[in-house]
Specification:
The protein is α+β, with helices and mostly antiparallel strands. It has helices at 10-19, 29-42, 76-80, 103-106, 141-209, 215-244, 257-267, 270-273, 289-305, 365-375; strands spanning 46-52, 56-63, 69-71, 87-90, 112-119, 125-133, 253-255, 275-280, 285-287, 313-320, 324-331, 380-385, 389-397. The protein has a six-stranded antiparallel β-sheet with strand order 3-2-1-6-5-4. Strand 1 and strand 2 (56-63) form a beta hairpin.
Length: 400
């Protein structure tokens, strides 16, 4: 018997084998199905998917035998990875000086061997998909071709596993970064809230304690209050955005579209500033009501704030199909310029427009709305005619 030599690139080859994370793992149907197929095609009692480890041949799939590893020094596959041909065939191992007294022959009765190399995209030979028989035999061209094709399928499967592992790692890294960012945002926002509130309180106190201030001084105080309120809204909006990115519970409640609109009107003063009409084509809505209230309230408040008409008109339409609820909120406001409609849902995107109270938005509200809609399995879009009004349309996925 001649034990297989280690290839010149063994260190890097071993690293490649380990990178897939499959050594010492349990059997899996996705691999066992391939060995069952190739055993049937080649008409052999044994079929294996092997990975050559440091001192052993690990059998990721072992069709026809009860063990999942064998010493590398006895391995047929150890010889296979040392050749350049993609397929190694030993028709009668008893006549081959490399194997004639190998315990796999004398004790296990392995006589015939055929193995197709598993070569990864970097060119490293990881192991084989191989078949054994207890008697001498040959493979026809179709069987040889099938072995090579299934070897390629094993590599595709290995690469998919590696990609999934990398995606999971990236996902965990992103989660960790998001958690750190949320903590940082909350910390900064908390630290900013206190001085901003102090400024607002002190300016109010200054006005009350100094009734004789000049109109110019009062103007400066008003500007300071407006700036402080804008900063306060910015801080609160940032916190709200990151809260919206958290997990939304899957629990739902059953309510009507009219009940939803009534609830919004009771929570805010939108009914006193605008004429709101509802066109409802649903019987009941089963969805996350708090999330919908947040979406609708934000869109209705925007429809009022960014409106330059004497009478503010808002029309809400609710429809449904087999898979989604569809909401439309149309207003007669200032509208959005065509070249800006693709930007409005971006975080901190400001379009340069001031609202009816002379304030400019902070570019957080609609980003938050989009985030929540996405969490609910839907999409949001806007159509608008500048100077005449906008229609926001969003969907919410129904629970299956």
């Amino acid at each position: 018997m001649i034990s297989p030599e280690f290839p010149d690139n063994e260190h890097k080859r071993q690293q490649a084998v380990e990178s897939y994370g499959l050594l010492d793992t349990l059997p899996e149907d996705r691999f066992d199905g391939l060995t069952a197929i190739i055993s049937e095609i080649c008409e052999t009692p044994i079929a294996l998917i092997t990975l050559l480890d440091k001192n052993r041949n690990f059998l990721k799939s072992h069709h026809g035998i009860p063990f999942n590893e064998s010493p590398r020094e006895l391995s047929f596959c150890g010889h296979a990875i040392n050749q350049d041909e993609p397929l190694m065939i030993v028709e009668d191992a008893r006549k081959d000086p490399r194997f004639h007294d190998n315990p796999l022959i004398t004790d296990q009765g392995a006589v015939f061997y055929a193995g197709a190399l598993l070569i990864n995209p970097d060119g490293y030979k990881l192991g084989t998909i191989c078949v054994y028989d207890t008697k001498p035999r040959k493979l026809n061209e179709s069987q040889k071709s099938s072995l090579k094709i299934l070897a390629n399928q094993v590599i595709i499967l290995l690469e998919q596993i590696l990609k999934n592992q990398e995606l999971e790692l990236l996902k965990e890294q992103l989660k960790r970064k998001n958690r750190n960012l949320e903590k940082f945002t909350e910390l900064v926002s908390h630290d900013l809230k206190s001085p901003v509130n102090n400024i607002l309180l002190l300016t109010d106190f200054l006005k009350q304690e100094n009734p004789d201030l000049s109109s110019e001084s009062l103007g400066y105080i008003k500007m300071l209050q407006q700036s402080s309120n804008a900063l306060k809204d910015y801080i609160n909006g940032t916190l709200e955005y990151y809260k919206s990115d958290e997990f939304i519970p899957v629990t739902t409640s059953r309510f009507t579209a009219k009940g939803l609109v009534d609830e919004i009107q009771s929570l805010s003063n939108v009914h006193s500033e605008a004429s709101i009409t509802l066109e409802n084509n649903t019987t009941f809505i089963e969805a996350n009501q708090p999330a919908l209230l947040q979406i609708m309230n934000n869109l209705l408040v925007n429809a009022i704030k960014y409106n330059d008409k004497e009478e503010i008109l808002i029309h809400i339409r609710v429809d449904e199909d087999q898979h989604f609820y569809k909401f439309q909120i149309a207003d007669n406001g200032i509208g959005i310029k065509a070249e800006l409609t693709d930007r409005i849902f971006g975080l901190y995107e400001k379009l340069g427009e001031v609202d009816r109270y002379g304030n400019q938005g902070n570019g957080i509200g609609l980003a938050t709305v989009k985030n929540i809609v996405s969490r609910l399995g839907g999409e949001i879009q806007v159509s608008s005619i500048y100077g005449k009004g906008s229609t926001f349309t969003f969907t919410v996925k129904k629970n299956d």
